Amino acid sequence: MEETPKRAITEPPTGGVVKGPREGFIEDIETNVALIEKRIKKDLKFKELTIGRYTKTKIKLAYIESIADEEVAENIEKKLKKIDIDGVIDSYYLVEFLQERTYSFVKQVSADEKPDSVCAKLLEGRVAILVDGSPIVLCVPYLLLEDLQASDDYYSNHTSASLSRAIRFFGALIAILLPALYIALKLHHFALVPLPALLALIGDGGGSALSPMFETIGALILFEIIMMATLSMPKNLGAPIGIVGAIVLGDTAVNSGLISGSTVLVCAIASVTSFCIPNLSSQISLLKFTACFIGAFFGLFGIMLALIVFVIYVCGLNNFGTPILAPFAPHIKEDAKDGILKSALPEMVMRPKSIPNKNPVRAKIKQRSEDKNG
Q: What integer best gives the mean pLDDT of the chain?
């Protein structure tokens, strides 16, 4: 039997870094296993499964035996063994089977293309799921916070990492709330807008043929269409088409009076900031459109109420015993050291308490007061 051809190991298209390893997983499971074994030399355990009546796809569960909670690994294995489908073509086929709430729009399983990121999660007590034929490795339990983090954060100063995370967090908030706040202010809350800004908005939108809700949602849909067209085109054509499409269509829409210039600006900012957290861009887009409708019909009160309901809903989500919003809800002081603000590495001596594990200490730091000559 001839050896199956496979792609060379290259830097993945997502998760690019300035510092740190540039290797990415490929579609061959044995190569991906070797990339993990290259970094973790002790107590690394693999369990092999086969899923798919026709594809007979090889699946491997990876975890560190002396760190991970065996019960979590067994629960994941049981869930995978219950899957009875025609085939598994990619690791994303397994995501909905692993989620505690199948129909939830909130992400509950993480997906990584970089071996260094997966190994870091294994060292925290998580379980990785490798699928033959896929360059994406799934990891559970999942925390919403981890998509705010980037591998770059651990290869740079903790101060710059904290700044980067804060920018990503506020970028996501801007993407979700800015268009909704814009619609709510124009339709319901003129008194809250400073007079110079109000005059500018009225003058800018005086010739608009559409209401603030329709022009804002129309502009957001236009940007989404341009983004989809850019991603679908060949690499050399995608960027020029995206730039020309955004400039020409946006300028034409403003000049024709269909959309005001301020609306285009707000929607452009929201569309760009949607990709501050690439792994959550689809969820951010869904929340953005939902918030726009709520802002149009119920104003600022509706937006705030919807935000509270959403936070309460996410607080109730658990993934294999791990609260999705940890370490903020519930508040775990030790885990918060690697939260939105990142502490220096010597201070993070404990593994995350929100992740079930049987070895809580990951570093032993010598006392600073220890005699240097001792």
A: 85
